[in-house]
TrEMBL record:
It holds the Pfam family Semialdhyde_dh. This is N-acetyl-gamma-glutamyl-phosphate reductase. Residues 3-124 form the Semialdehyde dehydrogenase NAD-binding domain. Its EC number is 1.2.1.38. One of its GO terms (biological process) is L-arginine biosynthetic process. SUPFAM superfamilies: Glyceraldehyde-3-phosphate dehydrogenase-like, C-terminal domain (SSF55347), NAD(P)-binding Rossmann-fold domains (SSF51735). PANTHER family: N-ACETYL-GAMMA-GLUTAMYL-PHOSPHATE REDUCTASE, CHLOROPLASTIC-RELATED, N-ACETYL-GAMMA-GLUTAMYL-PHOSPHATE REDUCTASE, CHLOROPLASTIC-RELATED-RELATED. HAMAP family: ArgC_type1. Catalyzes the NADPH-dependent reduction of N-acetyl-5-glutamyl phosphate to yield N-acetyl-L-glutamate 5-semialdehyde. The lineage of its organism: Bacteria, Pseudomonadati, Bacteroidota, Bacteroidia, Marinilabiliales.
């Protein structure tokens, strides 16, 4: 059994991680750290786990009890934690924050997008789990970059309120978010760095603009990203190229019909859809921001790091209604 520890166990990504790992056939959860909830039952915070576990939060991470640690803290907190409380080298680390995603920062973390870095992830000891917007957008664009056909990109993506984290803010509480929609961080979102890094990994020298407009949606979870770029290939050629690129990746489906968000909510799936309009290719990408965009992808990475089938424990059912 893989012994798992979680640091920052009270947030949305930790709750989703616990929901998945409690039913993973090769995992034993041995430590869930939360400074603010030490001594409390998990189910008192993650109320959907009532009846599933009697585990309680601890004040500290006990490294004697774990094989892998998931860091589920806010951006900047993972570096702070690891600098003050180093984790022994034999313990694997999967960080769900932004802290170690960029190679330019000269760290020893592997960027954990399996559809891009599968073999590197298998041999890694430390993983930087991708961002949710970054996952949806990269999966929409990687096949074009892989054949050097990516031009200037225009992206519009709408995300659910859980993407803002559990701590209430002026734009995430119900009375503001419900029946509302708004743009934020236009052309400047923090995920742009990792998106460009991955595209350049496949299409050397890619310096075209990535025009990204993020949108706050009035729903709880999920991301719908639409990306378009100039492309002289036919729709059939692009569709075949996408299906070939993802044929060995179990969580990406290239659909022949336009998808909708409820097909992916509560799952680790990505659904892609391709259309040609004059000289432009439009790609629609759907994910659950908390699963494939965070905790599900983190478990997928854990599976690969420990030599398991990457889909182990992740065949989750979508929310149909």
């Amino acid at each position: 059994m893989i012994k798992v520890g979680i640091v920052g166990g009270a947030g949305y990504t930790a709750g989703e991680l616990l929901r998945i790992l409690l039913h993973h056939p090769h995992v034993e959860i041995t430590c869930i750290q939360s400074t603010s909830n030490a001594g409390n039952a998990l189910a008192s915070v993650h109320t959907d786990l009532l009846g599933d576990t009697d585990l309680i939060f601890s004040a500290e991470l006990n490294t004697d009890l774990v094989d892998v640690v998931f860091l589920c803290m806010g951006h900047g907190k993972s570096k702070e934690f690891l600098s003050s409380k180093p984790i022994p080298d034999h313990i694997k680390i999967i960080d769900l924050s932004h802290d170690y995603r960029l190679e330019a920062e000269k760290n020893d973390f592997v960027y954990g997008l399996p559809e891009l870095n599968l073999e590197a992830i298998k041999g890694a000891n430390k993983i930087a789990n991708p961002g949710c917007f970054a996952t949806a957008i990269q999966l929409a664009l990687l096949p074009l970059a892989a054949v050097g056909k990516l031009n200037e990109v225009h992206v519009n993506a709408v995300t659910g309120s859980t993407g803002a984290g559990q701590q209430p803010t002026s734009t995430s509480h119900f009375s503001w978010r419900n029946n509302n929609v708004s743009v934020y961080k236009a052309f400047s979102h923090q995920h742009l760095g990792e998106i460009r890094q991955s595209l350049k990994q496949l299409q050397k020298g890619f310096e075209k603009a990535i025009n990204f407009i993020p949108v706050r949606g009035n729903f709880a979870r999920g991301i719908m990203a639409t990306a378009y770029t100039d492309c002289q290939l036919s729709e059939e050629e692009v569709l075949n190229m996408y299906k070939a690129y993802y044929k060995d990746h179990p969580f990406v489906t290239v659909s022949d019909v336009n998808p909708h968000l409820k097909q992916v909510v509560n799952t680790n799936k990505t659904i892609l859809y391709v259309e040609k309009h004059d000289d432009k290719i439009l790609v629609v990408s759907m994910i659950d921001n908390l699963v494939k965009g965070a905790s599900g992808q983190a478990v997928q990475n854990m599976n690969l790091m420990f030599g398991l089938d990457q889909s182990e424990g992740l065949r989750l059912k979508p929310v149909a209604f």
